[in-house]
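name: query_chain
kind: protein
chains: 1
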Amino acid sequence: MRINPRIIDKLVKIVLNSQAFFTVGILVAIVAVIFFKGSPHVNLEFIFSSPEDMGRHGGIFFTIIGTLLLVLLSILLATPLGVGTAIFLTEYTRESRFTKIIRFGVESLAGIPSILYGLFGFIFFVIKLKMGWSILAGVFTITIMILPTIIRTSEEAIKAVPRNFRIVSYSLSATKWETVLKVVLPSATPGILTGIMLSVGRAVGETAAIIFTMGSSLRLPTSLMDSGRTMAVHFYILAREGISMEKAYATALVLVLSILFINILAYYIMNRVIARYS
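structure:
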């Protein structure tokens, strides 16, 4: 018996809507639990005071500084490397065995568990290069972790730029680099920025690789060679060791709000860029 196509269409629409609402519902549920359990303990004193008694008392100011240093330096290193690699693969080379090897390596790096990155960083940066548990060792490790995401998203964003844009630019006597810089990259900015935001989220939420390389010292870092603790590591230790679940939820709430603020700021910048070049 043949089923009416309109009935199938309605069923598919219901299933897809249900999946979308289910996904959003999970996100809302997680954020709601963190908000209701963490908000009573979040205030200015909690944010700007130093932790005491292994985090059982005090605030998270030191961990905020550690998180900002790690994420900002990692993004500053990974973005030019990742975008530069994407430009090389899409604009300056043809499809060959060499480019296939590079893409295979990038995709393989993306699938490696973070604990292995941590072990590599511990052996190479901490021990071999004698950096010790330091912010710099953590930055280098996180940079390697987020490179595949930036490379792949940037490459796809650059590929999505219409070829006619390049042809028109060349017809106006623009060089290859001028075309890339003034035509291709502005058009690909939204996709590139999306990859950077995904990388920021991974860097902010990472724990295993950071504990192995940056350590978990609960003090204010005064240099890049000092150990430190990020908010994600602080939250993990507070919850895992049972030190203070109230402080753990409060730390998690600040972490979530920080990521939300970064995303809103990034989308604002992206929309400004799109409006400027459209």
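note: The CA atoms of residues 239 and 245 lie 6 Å apart.
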